[in-house]
């Protein structure tokens, strides 16, 4: 039998029907629903008089709009009326159709891409979709996972399938050992800097190599999460013992009787020796430094000790124009030091970096230090109620609060500023999120993407600082 | 879904690469639970000088005179010319909904982000990929001549300029068929319900842990 990539195996295992025109029907094992991209899908079902195909394949939780401040008053006390309607609509739709939902004040509530794996809803070898582009996160577990639009959310609800076309295979191999202070976030920002924001368009990217294998499940999720920022809807990491161990004892994991059969099946979820990739990118782990984005696209990234680029040095006129426009929006000068960029706010959270390991890394840096005077606000927003509880059990909340950071309730928060957490015009933010697009974190806001440790270092020094200097 | 067969309309050039979905429709407008009404907030941050709020009357907001779709000569635009990686970023279908609600019927670019490209077809909006050199030529022509119109013919798979020059484009057969006939994907898929059920029965045997776990 021909050698297959992990993506080929996952595709083949879910193929319901292959049409002659190249399109296919693939089976979807899991769908996660949230309040922003589902209301029109449920409305579509109702209008057509359709029912969900399979209730037990779905899980819902509100995350994008929920306030991260005190919310004991429940959904009725969400101040923004449109946000309130959206959260209430999700609750009503899930109640009507019988879909399991972790409502806003359920301790299991959180960001969809934190909750799915945490509950064992996402499992190796599954297909996972959600009306959110960062669904690529779940590929960290050897699952075929990608974002879909609302029409497709409705399609999956109604048919348990998607009409899809097979993607191409790309392997990004990171070999070697990561330096101290260099995290999964730096790895993926570096990769995006190398292949570009559209470099992965049309591909499923498998991240492999010894450096990836040495990274924890949390870190692998961070990497796959940002595959979409390189243009790839799908990011993947092969299953190994780290993956399998992650799922022991999770609520929706296989039962004790099913476990051995499941684990045996999962072990097959690796690319075969000699499998052919359409594109291979090789990166040396030792060359990766802590990263900071300086522009308005995730590919506009540089190592912490570099200078902001100069558009005059760029030969491609469209790119030079892009750099000029980005520098103007970001209020930066060509050739200025990244470490001279002063911060107004710091955001530690999002589906990229709000898991327990992220919070531990940030806490380690701020411990015994204080948020710098020029930083107006430094937010820590855990990815789920369970992450929050774990962090509190470890005393991380106290470390953050003592250092002057705010400790919040779980949600998407300032990553996309649909709730009240947002940047003011012209403010610079060191953010552990995934997109530095214009206006993403608030009208006129200026986002710099970094790792949790680098965000923490920026919080306590007031400007970008090589976190390795604080670790000595 | 609305059919797309052939369309002729005013073209406008949006000359920037990597136009993301946050730019197409900023997040504060995603709170609507409807599919319609996003048009006035299409490209909100590029189009207006102030910060837009949901449910606001946009008629009296200060317009950015430099933004292409605000210029008199591009009023009534229905074919948008764009640069590479158009529609990158989030999966929000509100982006094609906003373009459609504004009156855009086709977008022409050297490349699109995957999810956005896919979402367009679900909404009767046609994304067309042409080689960079041809897109460049169209940018030059539209800027040089006021009232410049393009004809998009899906049946023949060509974009035709006012001088009659035709540029061929590729489109997936299945998507073309659905768009030409205004077909509902879900209805088509449900014609294969027996195959889905057969697959599901097999899957239940092979991976029983994937069933009845989420309660």
Automatic annotation (TrEMBL), chain A:
CDD domains attached to this UniProt entry: IPMI
Cofactor: [4Fe-4S] cluster
Domain called Aconitase/3-isopropylmalate dehydratase large subunit alpha/beta/alpha: residue spans: 8-462
Binding site for [4Fe-4S] cluster: 351, 412, 415
Keyword Metal-binding: yes
Details of cofactor binding: Binds 1 [4Fe-4S] cluster per subunit.
Catalytic activity annotation: (2R,3S)-3-isopropylmalate = (2S)-2-isopropylmalate
Pathway(s) annotated for this protein in UniProt: Amino-acid biosynthesis; L-leucine biosynthesis; L-leucine from 3-methyl-2-oxobutanoate: step 2/4
PROSITE patterns to which the protein is assigned, alphabetical: ACONITASE_1, ACONITASE_2
Keywords: 4Fe-4S, Amino-acid biosynthesis, Branched-chain amino acid biosynthesis, Iron, Iron-sulfur, Leucine biosynthesis, Lyase, Metal-binding
Pfam family, one: Aconitase
EC numbers, comma separated: 4.2.1.33
UniProt GO molecular function: 3-isopropylmalate dehydratase activity
Family of the protein in this entry: Belongs to the aconitase/IPM isomerase family. LeuC type 1 subfamily.
Job of this protein: Catalyzes the isomerization between 2-isopropylmalate and 3-isopropylmalate, via the formation of 2-isopropylmaleate.
Quaternary assembly: Heterodimer of LeuC and LeuD.
Record-given protein name: 3-isopropylmalate dehydratase large subunit
Originating organism: Marinobacterium weihaiense
Gene: leuC
UniProtKB/TrEMBL annotation, chain B:
Name of the protein in its database record: 3-isopropylmalate dehydratase small subunit
Subunit and interaction comment: Heterodimer of LeuC and LeuD.
NCBIfam families: leuD (TIGR00171), PRK01641.1 (NF002458)
Entry's family note: Belongs to the LeuD family. LeuD type 1 subfamily.
Catalytic activity: (2R,3S)-3-isopropylmalate = (2S)-2-isopropylmalate
Gene Ontology MF terms: 3-isopropylmalate dehydratase activity
Residue stretches in coiled coil: none
Highest taxon of source: Bacteria
EC number: 4.2.1.33
Pathway: Amino-acid biosynthesis; L-leucine biosynthesis; L-leucine from 3-methyl-2-oxobutanoate: step 2/4
Chain ranges of the Aconitase A/isopropylmalate dehydratase small subunit swivel domain: 1-132
Function: Catalyzes the isomerization between 2-isopropylmalate and 3-isopropylmalate, via the formation of 2-isopropylmaleate.
Keyword entries, A-Z: Amino-acid biosynthesis, Branched-chain amino acid biosynthesis, Leucine biosynthesis, Lyase
């Amino acid at each position: 039998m021909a050698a297959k990539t992990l993506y080929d195996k996952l595709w083949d295992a879910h193929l319901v029907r292959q049409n002659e025109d190249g399109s296919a029907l693939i089976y979807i094992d899991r769908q996660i629903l949230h309040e922003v991209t589902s209301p029109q899908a449920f409305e579509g079902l109702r209008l057509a008089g359709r029912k969900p195909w399979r209730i037990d394949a779905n899980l819902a939780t509100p995350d994008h709009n929920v306030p991260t401040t005190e919310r004991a008053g429940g959904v009725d006390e969400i101040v923004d009326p449109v946000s309130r309607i959206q959260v209430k609509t999700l609750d009503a739709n899930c109640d009507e159709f019988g879909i399991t939902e972790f409502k806003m004040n359920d301790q299991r509530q959180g960001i969809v891409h934190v909750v799915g794996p945490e509950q064992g809803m996402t499992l190796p070898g599954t297909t996972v979709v959600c009306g959110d582009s960062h669904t690529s996160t779940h590929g960290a577990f050897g699952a075929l996972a990608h974002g879909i639009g609302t029409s497709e959310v409705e399609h999956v609800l109604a048919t348990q399938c998607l009409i899809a076309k097979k993607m191409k295979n790309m392997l990004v191999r990171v070999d070697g050992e990561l330096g101290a202070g260099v995290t999964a976030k730096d790895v993926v920002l570096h990769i995006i800097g190398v292949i570009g924001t559209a470099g992965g368009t049309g591909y499923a990217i498998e991240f492999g190599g010894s450096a990836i294998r040495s990274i924890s499940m949390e870190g692998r999720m961070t990497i796959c999460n940002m595959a979409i920022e390189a243009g790839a809807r799908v990011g993947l990491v092969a299953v190994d013992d780290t993956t399998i161990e992650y799922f022991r004892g999770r609520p929706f994991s296989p039962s004790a009787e099913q476990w051995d059969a499941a684990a045996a099946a999962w072990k097959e979820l690796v690319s075969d020796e000699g499998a052919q990739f359409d594109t291979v990118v090789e990166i040396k782990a030792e060359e990766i430094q802590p990263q900071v984005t300086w522009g308005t696209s995730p590919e506009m990234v540089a190592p912490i000790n570099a200078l902001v680029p100069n558009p005059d040095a760029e030969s491609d006129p469209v790119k030079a124009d892009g750099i000029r426009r980005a520098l103007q929006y970001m209020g930066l000068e060509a050739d200025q030091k990244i470490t001279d960029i002063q911060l107004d706010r710091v955001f530690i959270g999002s589906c990229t970096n709000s898991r327990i390991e992220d919070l531990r890394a940030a806490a380690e840096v701020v411990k015994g230090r204080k948020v710098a005077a020029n930083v107006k606000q430094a937010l820590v927003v855990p990815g789920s109620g369970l992450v929050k509880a774990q962090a509190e059990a470890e005393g991380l909340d106290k470390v953050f609060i003592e250092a002057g950071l705010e400790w919040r309730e779980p949600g998407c928060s300032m990553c996309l500023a649909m709730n009240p957490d947002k940047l003011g015009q012209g403010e610079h933010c060191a953010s552990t999120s995934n997109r530095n697009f214009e206006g993403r974190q608030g009208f006129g806001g200026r986002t710099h993407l970094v790792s949790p440790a680098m965000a923490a270092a920026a919080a306590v020094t007031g400007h970008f600082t090589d976190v390795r200097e604080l670790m000595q | 879904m609305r059919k797309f067969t052939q369309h002729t309309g005013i073209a406008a050039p949006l000359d920037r690469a990597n136009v993301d979905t946050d730019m197409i429709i900023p997040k504060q407008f995603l709170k609507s639970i409807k599919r319609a009404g996003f048009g006035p907030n299409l490209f909100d941050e590029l189009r207006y000088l102030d910060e837009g709020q949901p449910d606001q009357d946009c008629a009296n907001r200060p317009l950015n005179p430099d933004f292409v779709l605000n210029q008199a000569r591009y009023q009534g635009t229905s074919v948008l010319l764009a640069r590479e990686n158009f529609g990158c970023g989030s999966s929000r279908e509100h982006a094609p909904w906003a373009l459609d609600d504004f009156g855009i019927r086709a977008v022409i670019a050297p490349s699109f982000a995957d999810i956005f490209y896919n979402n367009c077809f679900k909404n009767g909006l046609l994304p067309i990929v042409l080689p960079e050199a041809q897109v460049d030529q169209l940018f030059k022509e539209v800027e040089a001549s006021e009232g410049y119109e393009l004809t998009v013919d899906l049946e023949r798979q060509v974009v035709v300029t006012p001088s009659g020059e035709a540029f061929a484009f590729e489109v997936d057969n299945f998507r073309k068929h659905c768009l030409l006939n205004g077909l509902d994907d879900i209805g088509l898929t449900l014609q294969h319900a027996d195959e889905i059920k057969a697959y599901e029965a097999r899957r239940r045997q092979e991976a029983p842990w994937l069933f009845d776990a989420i309660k």
